[in-house]
Amino acid sequence: MTQVNPYLAGATGRCPHCGEGMLFDGFLKVGKTCEACGFDLGAHETGDGASTFVILIAGFLCAFGALFSMFAFNWPVWLLLVVWLPVTLVACLGLMRPAKGLMVAAHIANNASEAGRHDV
């Protein structure tokens, strides 16, 4: 069996354990098990970790771009909103799925688990 890079597999939406099955059931819902290898993916839920990183990364890039546009090109406020709100939305949605896949892959690669999830 070839060694699978769990981070690359997670970022592309594949099972970090085998690299074959799908990681997500919907846009961001982690599947219960991998349909290829049967690995339990449901035990590795990341919560809000990925959204925090996406907000910080996309927020920095889009806020910097909006401020640069405002001061360098003297754009009016309505043009800033028309341009940078959709860019922010696309950046956040585009980064969210790979970031969540990377977080799940990090959980699996480091054998992390949620404290007390199955113990209570």
From TrEMBL:
Keywords associated with the record: Membrane, Transmembrane, Transmembrane helix
InterPro entries documented for this protein: ABC1_TM_sf, DUF983
Pfam family, one: DUF983
Compartments, as annotated in UniProt: Cell membrane
Spans traversing the lipid bilayer: 53-71, 77-96
Keyword Transmembrane helix in record: yes
Keyword Transcription regulation: no
Primary location recorded for the protein, binned into one broad class: membrane
SUPFAM superfamilies: ABC transporter transmembrane region (SSF90123)
Membrane-protein topology: Multi-pass membrane protein
Protein name per UniProt: Uncharacterized protein (DUF983 family)
Classification of source organism: Bacteria, Pseudomonadati, Pseudomonadota, Alphaproteobacteria, Caulobacterales
